[in-house]
Amino acid sequence: MDSSSKNLECVKMIQQQLVLLLHARKCQYRQPNNRVVRCSIPYCELMVSVLEHMGTCSEGSECAVPHCHSWRLILHHWATCLRSNCVICTPLNPENLCLLAKLFLDHKSLYYDTEPFLFYVFTEYDSYGCHIVGYFSKEKKSAQDDNVVCILVLPPYQRKGYGSLMIQFGYELSKMEGKIGTPEKPLSDLGLLSYRSYWNQTILEILVDLLEKESDDNPQISVMDINTRTWIKKEDVLATLQLLNVIQYYKSQL
Question: What is the pLDDT of residues 225-252, one digit of tens each?
Answer without folding.
Answer: 999 999 999 999 999 999 988 876 666 5
